[in-house]
């Protein structure tokens, strides 16, 4: 029971902390649609399962011990965030019509964006490996560990779906869509900032 409570508490604190996942879901919900935001949240949850899988297979320990491998993951994640951010920074005004639509995003693209944003995030790597090495006991049955992984994934989906619902609400979107290109640029700047900080961070894990 103590282990379960620790997993739940640490997961919830990690999920609600601001980061690239939050920025991406907020941006897609606010500027595109509720559907795009929720699918991005679903993609994030699926990305979490990647971290769960390699951690349970024992590869998480390898990543933690291998500086070069960790740095490869870190730089890949940083490059992806900078790439997304630069695309948003190039956003241009779409005219004076407040209801002019932003560039559409297919369901698959929204899902893929959320998935890659999380799967390439080394912060999630550190969180998952640390959680399973320091909190979850070695004698914990595999079925229970799989349950922990499912809970962590579902917690991400639930939280970021809630974020998507809030930021896609009509009252919020109606006031902000007129300045959508500035909002897009602001989120682009955030993602570039996350990527640069990630790339420049030292190899501490």
List descriptors.
mainly alpha, 205 residues, transmembrane, transmembrane helix, amino acid transmembrane transporter activity, 10 helices, cell membrane
Termini separation = 28 Å
Quaternary structure annotation: single chain
> Which class best fits the helix and strand makeup?
mainly alpha
Q: Uncertain spans, ≥5 residues at pLDDT below 50?
A: 96-101
- Tell me the major beta sheet: none
Q: What is the percentage of strand-forming residues?
A: under 5%
The backbone outline, from C-alpha atoms, is: globular
Please tally the β strands and state the result.
Answer: 0
Summarize it.
The protein is mostly helical.
Write the layout of secondary structure elements.
Elements: H1 2-16, H2 20-31, H3 34-56, H4 59-65, H5 67-89, H6 107-119, H7 122-134, H8 142-167, H9 170-176, H10 180-200
Helix pairs in contact: 1-8, 2-3, 2-6, 2-8, 2-10, 3-6, 3-7, 3-8, 5-10
């Amino acid at each position: 029971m103590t282990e379960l409570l620790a997993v739940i508490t640490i997961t919830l604190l990690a999920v609600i902390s601001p980061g690239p996942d939050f920025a991406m879901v907020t941006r897609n919900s606010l500027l595109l649609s509720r559907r795009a935001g929720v699918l991005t949240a679903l993609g994030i949850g699926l990305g979490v399962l990647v971290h769960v899988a390699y951690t349970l297979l024992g590869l998480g320990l390898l990543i933690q011990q291998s500086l070069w491998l960790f740095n490869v993951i870190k730089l890949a994640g940083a490059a992806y965030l900078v790439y997304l951010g630069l695309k948003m920074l190039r956003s241009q005004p779409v005219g004076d019509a407040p209801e002019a639509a932003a560039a559409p995003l297919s369901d698959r693209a929204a899902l893929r964006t959320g998935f890659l944003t999380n799967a390439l995030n080394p912060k999630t790597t550190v969180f998952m490996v640390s959680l399973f090495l320091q909190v979850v006991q070695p004698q914990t049955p595999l079925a229970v560990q799989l349950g922990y992984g499912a809970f962590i994934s579902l917690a991400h989906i639930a939280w970021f779906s809630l974020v998507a619902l809030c930021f896609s609400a009509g009252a919020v979107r109606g006031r902000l869509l007129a300045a959508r290109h500035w909002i897009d640029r602001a989120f682009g700047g955030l993602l570039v900032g996350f990527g640069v900080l990630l790339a420049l961070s030292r190899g501490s894990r």
